[in-house]
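Notebook entry, cofactor series.
This is the third protein in the set we're modelling with a bound small molecule. For this one the ligand is zinc ion. I'm keeping the input format identical across the series so the outputs can be compared line by line later. Sequence and SMILES below, as received.
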Amino acid sequence: MLRACWFLALALGTALACPRTGLAWGGASHVAITRAACETLPPWQKELLGTQLAGLVHRYCLIPDQVYTDRENARFAMMDSRPGVRYILNLHLPGPPPENLEVLQYFVEKAVAALRAGRVADAARYMGTVCHLVEDYGSPAHVVPEDNMFTLWQQFLPPPEEMKGVLLHGPIENGTFQIRLKDYRPRLLGTSVPEASWRLLHRIHEAILYVRATTVPIIRGLYAGDHKTVDAQQRKAARFDAQVVADALYTILCLGTKRFAPAEVEQLQRVEITRFFPLEAPKLYYPQSQFFGRPYWGYPRVGFTLAEGKRPVPLRLRLRQGEQIREHEIPNGISAGMGRRLTFLLPEGVFQRFEVTAGLHAQLGAQGKVQFAVLGDGKVLQRIVLSGSEPARRLECDIRGVTRLALALESKTSQSQHNYAIWAAPTLIKAPAAKGAP
Ligand SMILES: [Zn+2]
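Returned structure with ligand:
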């Protein structure tokens, strides 16, 4: 069972126990991050939380770590679907993405329902649990899959004599810093609980990727006794994490009051998912089992492809514009291989349409021939075969009711080394198709 989180005691060699209250650790990371996030909330939201704001910062963001000691609040970190389970690992360490989404959605829903029923004290506690999850997932000690105690990593990065055998989890994440977000304005992540939870999961993924780059510098800093570097890298991680916490809190309070700024609602109408991670990369990297063999041996990439599997080359498509066909560079496309799928998790009942441009790379794919298919929950929604001599095609699909959207590629030539296929600007859209559209 994992109890070591941002918050655990720093002292090495002492028994690691969950602290009783956040107040004993005033500078601890969960408190520092939640405070920085709360400072960015607009005045109306701070007023709405009232006296619960201090509780959220100092106590409720720690509830999932204190389910055995804070009996009064433990139920705010438990789920009806897991009766009797007091310690839910997903609140601290990410599991498979569908599970993470289920857990997030559960607690966001609870917070929103409590707000709508006028139970602000309960809402603040559920919000504390959401804060904890976001903060833990983005902790420099939690972003390494399968090795959060760093026993494997110490084989790659051997510690100095005096640190041999030390569990690095605590030292990597425990700091005494304070952070401020200055001018950060939290973003609305959705106008419904499923949409907001789904986008929050994507924001958390962005945080995990950002924070992964701080873990090695922190370990090296610890080995060298360089506390300045450790502190600087922990702050860097914590600031990004705090922005995501701010988005989560802001969105929950907007949902709970049904108060949305029209400009923010407008921005949510279309979502480009080029940089969203598919289920084939559950821990935000492609495992070797997901590699493809054609057009080269490799894995999907955003914004470029690898010519002959060696040289990065920008994505270029030939697009029809009126009577003319012109070549364009595509910054927001995915280069993918034959015989593999990219499957994206969608929130229920949010998006109505999916659009994507499918084509072969203007130079590298000129002699290729590929079948592009879009599938919704396993059923084919659109399927076309394109040759490299043809311009790219825009595909539109009705995705009402779809929860898993897949993009699949299949070779239609014996010369599949030319199949440099590109999915450009895959976009989810809330509005239905205009009349007369395909
Ligand atoms: Zn935790």
